[in-house]
Structure formats: C-alpha cells, structure tokens
Amino acid sequence: MTTPETGILPQHLLGIEGLTRDQISLFLDHAERYASFGARDAAFGRPLDGRTVINLFFENSTRTRTSFELAAKRLGADVINMEVGASSISKGETLIDTAVTLNAMHPEALVIRHADSGAVALLAQKVNCAVVNAGDGAHEHPTQALLDALTIRLRKGRLEGLTVAICGDVAHSRVARSNIHLLTTMGATVRAVGPRSLVPSGVRAMGAEIFHDMREGLRDVDIVMMLRVQTERMQGNFFPSAREYFRFFGLDREKLALARPDALIMHPGPMNRGVEIDSDVADDFERSVIRMQVEMGVAVRMAVLELLSNRTGREVVK
Ligand code: ASP
C-alpha cells in the first residue's frame, strides 16, 4: 500500500484542536484503507519494518495500549512497552529526562499517555521523533476521536450535517473534547448533554450546544455517544447516586427512542453498565457500534503511526 503525501501534517499528533479538515481527512482516508484490509498482514507491506515504537504510559490503560501495540506490530515495527512504575521515574528522574533518554534511542514514534493535561505536549518539545498523544488528563485523546469519526463515516457515509449528542461526564472527558473539535471542524452539529455539574459552560466556546435534559438533548440526533462517569477524576460528589444518575442520564430504550430511528450508539469504553448505559442498548448490535469502535482503533493507529513516520526535516533537539 502506498503512503499518501504527508506534507500537510504536523510532526506530532498532540490533539485534534487546530487540525484542518484536510489533515483530519488524510488520517481518516488512510485509516479506512487499513480498515478495509482487515488483519491480513501481507497487504500492509510492513512500512515500519526495522523501526521502533515506544509506548510510554504513565496512566493505566489496557485497550489503548494494546491497540497501539497491535497497530505498530501490523506495520512491522518493534514495540517497547514502558512499565512506568518500574522505570526510573520512580527513582526520581524527571519526565523530560525520561523522554530525552528514550529519544536518544531513535524510536520512530513515542506514544504517550499521562494523567496531566499538557504533559504530552511538553515532552514533544524535547524530542525529535513523532509523538502521539494517547490521552493527557481531561485534555485530548486524538486517536479516539479519529476512530469514532471513522466508525461514524463508515456507517453513515459522512460526518457533515449529522447531529451528535455527547452525553454524560463531559467535564472530565478528553474523549469529549477531542470529539467536539473533530466533529465541529468536519461540519457536524454537536450537543453536550449532561447534568450541570458535569457539563462545563466552556464547551459552548468550542462549538457545542448544551442540554441538561437528556430527553431534549437526544431528540432527533443521528449519533448517541455515551461517556464513562470518571469517578477517579472526581473530588467530591458530582451527583447524588449511581441509581439517580442512571435514571436521568443513563441511556436506556426509552431515552434512545427520542433519537432518530437509525441513530447509532457509541461508547469509548470501558463501560459502567447500569450507570451511564443499560446493557440492553449497549449490546444491541443493530444500533450499537461499540465493538466496531475498538476495531477501527487499530486501523486509525496504524494510519497515524505510518503517516507521522518517515517525515523529513525534523528538527534535531539538542
Ligand atoms: N478510554 C477513554 C480514555 O482513556 C475513555 C475513558 O476512560 O472513559 O479517556
């Protein structure tokens, strides 16, 4: 498979904010080619043969790390997973020293997840390989938004003109932020739906409409994107109880009936069944594309790793 002209892309993928329609489309078009090949390695041509990709995860992750690992391996790269707990970070080395040390081993790309917003961008300034943000705090998770967009595009044939409701814990969600940037840039209408305590008014400035009544927010939408309630990022009480939350903001058949009859159900995972989503709708394979999202994750990460590799003119950091 030939690699398209990548001159319009930035050196790193730190977020969706600031990317143009053309840049987003380039990632999606290339990922779609990988998605159509399925898992048949021979068709990929191993464009990263002999290169190294390092996964540097400062925050727990199973699905995202595995997905990046599989993507890099399908491209033919060698993959190193940094066990951060066992690394020199715990011996007092600074974040920046860790990144500079890894950079000196000349990887093709560093895939970084960190609990603090902005930490990945900081590290990217200190290295000359490509850096891919695999999630930084509540800031951005760009490959998640790309895989969500690819899933929507494959099922609906377009992004432009669709209405997407992003529901639940918007305040703590990097998935929501990246999706709002991507979907508004691509011409979709985005609604942020959830309790006042979990939908910051700042999302309006990002182009989303705000709804605090889920029934209103879901009316006639094409896509219902549920978010996990991220209790690990909450200090104090943001809602009275999980039961109460489900009653007002959990997706069940009755609330789903307000969306368009062909509306798709999405969730980035991991799901809190019975809190933000009922199993009955999560497992409705006519409407729920949650498994397809996971599958598209590998295709998107292959495209991102390949397109950000082999770039000429990288500034050498001293
Ligand atoms: N897996 C996604 C993330 O890392 C969503 C979540 O954890 O709720 O942000």
UniProtKB/TrEMBL annotation:
Provide the E.C. number(s) assigned to this enzyme. Answer: 2.1.3.2
Ranges of residues in domain Aspartate/ornithine carbamoyltransferase carbamoyl-P binding: 11-153
Q: Which residues form the Aspartate/ornithine carbamoyltransferase Asp/Orn-binding domain?
A: 160-307
Show the Gene3D superfamilies listed in the entry. Answer: Aspartate/ornithine carbamoyltransferase (3.40.50.1370)
Pathway info:
Pyrimidine metabolism; UMP biosynthesis via de novo pathway; (S)-dihydroorotate from bicarbonate: step 2/3
Enzyme class comes to transferase
> InterPro entries this protein is in?
Asp/Orn_carbamoyltranf_P-bd, Asp/Orn_carbamoylTrfase, Asp/Orn_carbamoylTrfase_sf, Asp_carbamoyltransf, Asp_carbamoyltransf_Asp/Orn-bd
Q: Name one GO molecular function term.
A: aspartate carbamoyltransferase activity
Q: Would the keyword NADP be found if you checked this record's keyword annotation?
A: no
The residues that the entry says bind L-aspartate are: 91, 174, 228
Name the residues that bind carbamoyl phosphate: 63-64, 113, 141, 144, 269-270
Q: Which PROSITE patterns match?
A: CARBAMOYLTRANSFERASE
* GO cellular component assignments: cytosol
Q: Which UniProt keywords apply?
A: Pyrimidine biosynthesis, Transferase
Q: Name one GO biological process term.
A: amino acid metabolic process
Catalytic reactions of this protein: carbamoyl phosphate + L-aspartate = N-carbamoyl-L-aspartate + phosphate + H(+)
Similarity comment: Belongs to the aspartate/ornithine carbamoyltransferase superfamily. ATCase family.
How does it associate, per the subunit comment? Heterododecamer (2C3:3R2) of six catalytic PyrB chains organized as two trimers (C3), and six regulatory PyrI chains organized as three dimers (R2).
Q: What does this protein do?
A: Reversibly catalyzes the transfer of the carbamoyl group from carbamoyl phosphate (CP) to the N(epsilon) atom of ornithine (ORN) to produce L-citrulline. Catalyzes the condensation of carbamoyl phosphate and aspartate to form carbamoyl aspartate and inorganic phosphate, the committed step in the de novo pyrimidine nucleotide biosynthesis pathway.
Matching NCBIfam families: asp_carb_tr (TIGR00670), PRK00856.1 (NF002032)
Q: What is this protein called?
A: Aspartate carbamoyltransferase
The species this protein belongs to is: Phaeovibrio sulfidiphilus
Gene name tied to this protein? pyrB
